[in-house]
Specification:
Length: about 350
Amino acid sequence: MTTYKGINGFAVQSVATDPSPLDEGQVWYNNATYAFKLASVTTAGTFASGGNLPAERFTSGAAGTQTATIAFGGQDPVGNVNTTFTYNGSAWTTSPGTMNTARSYLGTANSGTQTATLGFGGATTVPTAASESWNGSAWTNTPSLSTARDSGASFGTQTAALFASGIISYGPAVTSPATESWNGSSWTSGNVMNTVRAQGGAAGIQTAGLYFGGTPNGPSGPYLASTESYNGTSWTSVNSLNTARDYASGSGTQTLALAAGGIGSNPYPTLNSTELWNGTSWTSNPTGLGTTRYMGNNGAGSQAASIFVGGRNGGTYYANTEEFTGPGSPVTQTITTS
């Protein structure tokens, strides 16, 4: 009779804790839960609930990984806030370090880390140019943007960030054509996007970024599906999203990105749908956010392991966290006889 050991050259291990990292096809027996288990890979990206924020937030900045995240600033039902929260993969903690300028709709170095990121621009009662750096315990004011604005395209790290377009005034909203790059000490003007817009999703680093969706005219629309890629010098139009959306949350890199949630075109439904970018085109993911919402902030993490924090749907603000596991990621399954 053929046995598992005869096929693989070794017997099934008996362990008290599931192994990590996993290898596809790996089989083991968990003697604590009395179950045989198998490592397989996901065929579609899925969302799972994480720990709730200490308070509801909308359009906050975010950076880091799925298990070591920072969220800062944003807006609660009363107004703009300057609080900072950190996440350890299961629970959020309120940091004693608060931003010097309370604001929402801010730009963020979303490829930074939990202990080193940057927050810039945003809205107080009007657009602001203020920029701040985070060192893991405190925020320090840094040189300001040349143009005060909020809701722009933002990505990068603490020492190499980018802020493009965004809203410079309200009633009606006026969108800025400006692109500015941060080198760790100052902001420098760069080339303009092909479609000037605000309120889209973003991913990547200063020399390899992606911006998608948004609107050229503020809340009045129209909402866009167009995507642009940035190479550190210039913007190039690439394939569009499948669904035009405003206030989508983005994460990942220029070649492996994720767009989730947002607001769709007239009659302006709030979305939970998710799309995956492979460097060439967007694909609709079968599973969307568990909580339908728009966020207006960049998510933290990679396409394979992202985190989405807070958000809003009409007058309802959220504190919940959702963690995304991308397709092709290792997962543990329990072997049953059914």
